[in-house]
Specification:
six-stranded parallel β-sheet; Alpha/beta knot; 3 domains; 353 residues; elongated; alpha/beta; 60s Ribosomal Protein L30, Chain: A; 36% helix; 13% strand
Length: 353
């Protein structure tokens, strides 16, 4: 039986058959290969071990590949990080992760979660429910009306809390219920007259550089509370309707249309043509918002991001600027808080007629 590694013949399988490869030689191959885990060193391994064996040269790459496959099945010693054969993947190629269970798809992909977001979506006729997931314990907490809406959904699935956690983004506060539904209808500026059909007082919000989904969600919630008919926001750099936004909106995304536009400045021009007074919120304004909105039946309230405020071109497109009467001790409010107060002022003025 041969004992010199140079004289070991390789068969077509790439791994020497047992009679031709004693266990100590096999271990030696694996031990040396383990110490040469990159392309350069594998080439050194090839030259040092096999370069003199010309008749087996064509089988060498297959042999090394099979040894690599054998090595990848070995358990990494405790406390060590395995980096063997890290170059086996193509450059730039990412390792594919296997889902943790059969329920798992892309975590957070198109899911709404939380009581208000889910229950509002269930009652929206414009939504088609693809999947509704709920835990048994959550089902016992629902009111009779909500239980009826849940139980009548065709694609209802009972899951454990752990399974629900796996489906949703890390840290999602789902309250034991989540659903995946078809997207809401797309709205455009041309739909605004239909949204306000038969209403004398019309108000919409325009968001400039408001990128935080929590803020957009909270603004949408306040808009629903105070009768703001729609929210206009730029398509670029504005958050999409995710579980985070929907939960922050507490179900309001089902009743307040989000209108996305390619160019906010041109959208403001279009709103002016439709008869809207474009009133920008700015802490440096000469007049308070209550004064600025007096006598206006159609209002497009323009809100900028906290800190940056309105962009120059956006401000130039506004007909008037207004501010909230806040204490000089505070420079500004969070945009969602400012929006809620401004929406209340608009609703109060509209109620006075």
């Amino acid at each position: 039986m041969p004992t010199d590694l140079q004289s070991v013949p390789f068969n077509r399988s790439g791994i020497p058959p047992t009679p031709h490869l004693p266990s100590d030689i096999h271990r030696k191959v694996l031990r040396h290969y383990r110490n040469f885990d990159n392309k350069v060193n594998r080439k050194k391994l090839k030259n040092s071990f096999f370069s003199k064996t010309t008749r087996n040269g064509p089988l060498l790459s297959e042999a090394l590949r099979n040894i690599s496959e054998a090595m990848t099945t070995r358990k990494t010693p405790k406390g060590q990080k395995s980096n063997f054969f890290s170059s086996a993947r193509k450059s730039g190629e990412r390792r594919q992760r296997t889902p943790r269970n059969t329920l798992q798809s892309a975590p957070g992909d198109g899911w709404l979660y939380g009581d208000h977001a889910v229950l509002a979506a269930l009652t929206n006729p414009n939504r088609k429910i693809k999947r509704l997931l709920i835990t048994k314990s959550k089902e016992t907490q629902l009111s009779a009306e909500d239980l009826k809406a849940v139980s009548s959904t065709p694609n209802l699935e009972y899951v454990s809390t752990d399974e629900l956690n796996d489906m949703l983004p890390e840290g999602a506060i789902h309250q034991g219920i989540a659903l995946k539904a078809t997207p809401l209808p797309d709205y455009s500026l041309e739909d605004i007259p239909n949204l306000f059909e038969g209403k004398t007082h019309q108000a919409i919000a325009v968001l400039d550089q408001v990128t935080d989904p929590h803020n957009v969600g909270a603004i949408t919630r306040s808009a629903a509370a105070f009768g703001i008919g729609a929210i206009v926001l730029p398509d670029r750099r504005s958050p999409s309707i995710t579980g985070v936004l929907a939960r922050s909106a507490s179900g309001a995304i089902e009743s307040v249309p989000l209108i996305r536009v390619n160019n906010l400045a041109r959208a403001l021009d279009k709103l002016a043509e439709m008869g809207f007074w474009r009133i920008g919120m700015d802490g440096r304004a000469d007049q308070e918002l209550e004064t600025a909105i007096t006598g206006a039946n159609r209002i497009a309230l323009v809100l900028g991001s906290e800190g940056k405020g309105l962009r120059r071109l956006t401000e130039e497109k506004c007909d008037l600027l207004g501010k909230l009467p806040i204490s000089s001790k505070i420079e500004s409010l969070n945009v969602s808080n400012a929006a809620a107060i401004a929406f209340y002022e608009i609703a109060k003025t509209a109620a006075k007629g």
